[in-house]
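Appendix B, example 12.
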Amino acid sequence: MCHLSVATPIIKPINGLCNLSCSYCYTSGLKGYSSKNRMSLETLKAVIDFFCNNQDEIEFIWHGGEPLLAGLEFYQEAVRIQQSWKKRGRKISNFLQTNATLITPEWVRFFVENDFFIGVSLDGPRKFHDQVRFYPNGRGSYDDVMRGIGLLRRGEIFNGIICGISAVNYEFPEETLNFFLGENIKKLKFARIKNIGHCDNVSGITISPAQYADFMITIFDLWLEVDDPAVEIRDIQSVVSLILGGNKRECIYMGQCDQFVTVYSDGSIYGCGSFSKTDNLYFGSVLDEPSIVRSNSRLQIFRDLLEKRRKFCRACDWYFICKGGCAKDCYEYLDSVKPLSKVCENLQRYFRHISGRIRSYNLI
């Protein structure tokens, strides 16, 4: 069955508003915001109705900025609206990515009662994290993040960490992984900090595809040594699964970038948030009929581009894993068909290393 375009919303109910001022924030260009511009409850209902209209299973991904700034009442209303769709047989999941500094027992009770999955951004131990993730006054956020994680863990709704890999910590993969394991944090994703989206002040801490590949190769080798099935490193597990004939995929290895869209507080629908908020990836609004959005000419151009990229990449031995790769990260321009050689070369090096290690265990 063909996958559905515009199926998985990454919702920014407060756009780029955040209580932190992280040095690499990719939504820094969206911070021109006041509380009156929060997504209205009418728009919230339109968002949920739009995505539940013709899907049996829906994942709502709540993002920011800092999505908790939308307020507890906002999410209570979201759950209430979703409930009417659940009664009609929809299977609905809610994922929320937070910096965890605003977590309170009241938030935890709500998340527990409504089966939310909560991911947290933490860039390793204090000496790394506080260099890049801090408050507007420069104070590091590490202590507040760890306090929030503690509350989430007590509620058994902590869904793991996204750790930004930058010039601050990329040379310390073993120290970084050991920190997380020492804190009994075993669900991890390592994300390369790069020039992306609205970010224009991060050139000093971005790392290259080669540096990121070096980091991940070391992490993979360390992961093998740990030999603990409870340690889940998302990108690595996707690659291992695919090499072994499975189908577990991170979105960057799906080749279906039109499935994921960003919904801003006014209900406008754009391509995945990895891209800048550009007119070329404006697909419509949740106030439009879903069929109109999914037949939008810009969306069709984007889908055609993805197919051209997949066609170009099919001759590659590693196409079965990356399916053309991340539509933003692997290409110089939005209309590029050929991926960047520096990205491909390092992805291939990463895949070859993992495949070689797996073969040494006679698993394939």
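The mean pLDDT is 93. The longest helix spans residues 341-360.
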